[in-house]
Specification:
This protein is an alpha+beta fold. It contains eight helices and seven strands; from the N terminus they run αβββββββααααααα.
């Protein structure tokens, strides 16, 4: 509990005054407010709170530019992580967070979380939303990626994921894995039959 409270306090200290925001209206009814930090051919990345989030164009109903600045907009997660995570610079924490976004890892985790919550009893869903805090989960995996990737490698990987080939890889990899798993199950069934 103390760690969560400390995290909230630290997030509150990293303020970017006077940032203009956009409002993204999603097809599923959600409304996201934040600063658009990247518009790609297939997606939009918006800084919502401490974490960037990517939405694919087919998820977006419309985007509106807000007139008034958003006061108290939270800065990059890297600034917070460097104070909470021993040995990880703010720059590297930001690169890891960008990698998690660009690679589709965040979206995949979020989709799995939403699926779990949707399949749970209605009275448990609010509790599960608290337990499955995507930003908290990402803060936990930043040190894992830190162990295996250098800042230069992260920059190169992020650049790849922003290319059309990288975007296609993000799009088709889940389909390939699903088909592979089904083919494996079918093969095992065939081999196990007398």
């Amino acid at each position: 509990m103390k760690v969560k409270l400390l995290g909230v306090v630290l997030l509150g200290l990293v303020v970017v005054p006077g940032v203009r925001a956009e409002t993204i209206y999603l097809n599923d009814g959600r409304v996201i407010k934040g600063k658009i930090i990247n518009r790609g051919a297939y997606d939009v990345t918006i800084k919502e709170g401490a974490m960037p989030r990517k939405f694919f164009n087919d998820q977006i109903l419309r985007i509106e530019q807000d007139e008034a600045p958003v006061n108290g907009a939270v800065g990059a997660i890297g600034a917070v992580d460097s104070s909470r995570l021993t040995g990880i610079s703010a720059e590297k924490a930001a690169l890891i967070t960008e990698f998690i976004e660009a690679s589709g890892i965040r979206q995949s985790m979020q989709a799995n979380i939403e699926r779990i919550i949707a399949q749970s009893p209605a009275e448990k869903q609010a509790e599960l939303r608290t337990i499955f805090d995507i930003n908290g989960i990402i803060r936990q995996i930043v040190p894992i990626y830190d162990k295996y990737y250098s800042p230069e490698e992260l920059r190169e990987i992020i650049a790849f994921y922003k290319t059309p080939a990288g975007q296609k890889m993000i799009e088709v990899t889940p389909k390939i894995m699903s088909e592979f798993l089904q083919a494996s199950v079918d093969a095992i069934k065939q081999r196990s039959q007398p």
